[in-house]
Description:
By secondary structure, chain A is mostly helical. Chain A is 63% helix and 6% strand. In chain A, strand 1 (84-87) and strand 2 form a beta hairpin.
Amino acid sequence: MYIKHIQLYTVSTFMIERMEIIISNSSGKAIYEQIEGQIRDQIMSGVLKGGDPLPSMRSLAQDLKISLITTKRAYNELEAEGFIVTVAGKGCFVATQDPALLHEANLRMAEDFLRRAVEVAERGSITKEELKEILDILYEVD
Amino acid sequence: MENAVEVRGLRKSYGDYEINGLDLDIPAGYIVGLIGENGAGKTTLIKCITGANHCDSGIIRVFGSSDRTVLGKIGVVFDECCLHKMMSGKQIGNLMADLYPEWDQSRYEFLMEKFGISLDKKVHELSRGMSMKIQVAVELSHGADLVILDEATAGMDPASRDEFLDIVMEYMQDDRHSMLMSSHITSDLERVADYIVFLHRGRIIMSEPKDEILDRYGVVKGGEAQVLAIGRENIVSLRRESYSVSALVRDRHAVKEAFPELTVDTASLDDIMVLIVRGDAA
Lengths: 142, 282
């Protein structure tokens, strides 16, 4: 019983070095969404790579001290979106991301943010030229 | 899904107080949180499951069996310390080693150390919170597949409760382990419980996955006419306060969508309990 615990612990600390999940009680987002979103972000940004092992649902629930149902739901959503795969008897792994699909997903995300910027611009009578100018400045600063 | 515990049609009455026709499942591998006001029947239910009380009628199956031979696989902690006051932690360990065939002394010592209790201390020298911890250490060390905790965190400070939840989650790493946990400190249940069962006057009025409860239920606040406009069928219970009316609603997202001008807050388990116990049915 003990040895099992210690082994699990090593696996999870190993993961924590690379994977970060921060649960907020006041973010207004459901806990499963927070986990799902943070793991997805880390996969999309390349912090987690294809084939990387993820902690088991039970050990993630233990480490975050949350319900097993919550971690199951987060993993199920990630699996449905193609970000992770479950290998029977072995656990969950980051799915190998097709670079074209990943690019597509990032593109969609950028488009979403830009759409919001356009909405704000329209509301505040900011011209398209002004918006482009902001974009140019942002690129220069970076 | 397999159930560690199945209760069907449980009936138990004491004078004017009764549990009548109660059904409950504890799915194997999960934590069920039991909430309810004082006198709702939580301890009576627990005593019936553990065999400490006989029920008037109904079926209670533990690990699929309704005979009493499996009761040794249950660990139970009641809110009053039942260990002998003059015994030390070490003596309790020795006693349990004789009582339980699967007693795990090293695990007991490990838990006692984690809880920061010296094995030389006698039970009467310990605070209430500490004596609860000894009981938890005992019940998690004798190979139980089902652990029932009745107000086990009563008397523990926030740091100890956090430590206690660590130990609970570690116990739950074995997917054959199940837990029934009653607590008035609902924030603990909001974290670790998989399912919530709400017992009110001897009846179960809510039994759902915790995430769904917290995601769906909400509290609407406003003037009486304004709140009642959402329709009584959407309101679980209503509470009139000095300057406003609060209503517990089953689907806060739908209410928010239909009535964007209303204040719709999320509902904690505490909010749900207070509104149901102290409010009026809509």
